[in-house]
Recover the amino acids of this structure.
């Protein structure tokens, strides 16, 4: 595997479910990010981790909970989501904030 | 308030023509301006980036023009090809952890 991988690629979940998105980077980077991409809206930065420490949380609702166990892995834990949370969730990594972010293919999330 | 405004929303260009996408920003503290290219089913990929101390940067057929006084920057794609058909995002960041993206421009290059 090379670059940034994300699993699953597609996820459908009910509003009462709990699920997790996984991201793995194979680039040796020290910073990782979660973004939300909705149609006709700018990419929204959700979380930033540098050296496994969270450095930014852009007022994201608590139903989204990130976890960064090491510099290569990033998770986004989801619970009691709303239909408006349906979007493409992108993970990215970089060597030193904010330069040259490399994005994964994203997880298409649908909340029913 | 949208930090970075991008236009047009969509663009159709003939093969061989020049594609131009514009972005404007307000925060003069921004110090890094990348452009990303995104194909369907893929994440954005960094295309080219510029710092505000440079007025132009060229990489192959892609050029960023930067106007610091007007707080505007643009992407020019010369000799546009059908393979360039994608969504393009401009972005601006402050050298810490603040990133702001434009809303994207869907480019279609007609053969």
């Amino acid at each position: 595997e090379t670059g940034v991988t994300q699993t699953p690629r597609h996820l459908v979940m009910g509003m009462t479910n709990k699920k997790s998105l996984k991201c793995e980077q194979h680039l040796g980077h020290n910073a990782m990010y979660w973004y939300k991409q909705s149609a006709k809206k700018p990419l929204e930065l959700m979380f930033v981790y540098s050296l496994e420490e969270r450095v930014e949380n852009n007022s994201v609702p608590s139903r989204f909970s990130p976890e960064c166990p090491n510099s290569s892995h990033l998770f986004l834990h989801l619970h009691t989501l709303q239909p408006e949370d349906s979007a493409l969730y992108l993970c990215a990594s970089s060597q030193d904030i904010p330069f040259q972010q490399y994005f994964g293919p994203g997880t298409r999330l649908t909340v029913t | 308030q949208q930090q970075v405004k991008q236009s047009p929303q969509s663009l159709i260009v003939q093969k061989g023509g020049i594609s131009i996408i514009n972005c404007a920003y307000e925060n003069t503290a921004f110090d890094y301006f990348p452009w990303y290219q995104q194909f369907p089913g893929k994440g954005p990929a960094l295309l080219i980036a510029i710092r505000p101390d440079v007025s132009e940067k060229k990489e192959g057929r892609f050029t960023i023009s930067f106007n610091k006084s007007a707080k505007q920057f643009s992407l020019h794609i010369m000799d546009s090809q059908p393979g360039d058909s994608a969504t393009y995002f401009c972005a601006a960041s402050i050298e810490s952890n603040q990133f702001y993206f434009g809303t994207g421009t869907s480019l279609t290059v007609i053969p």
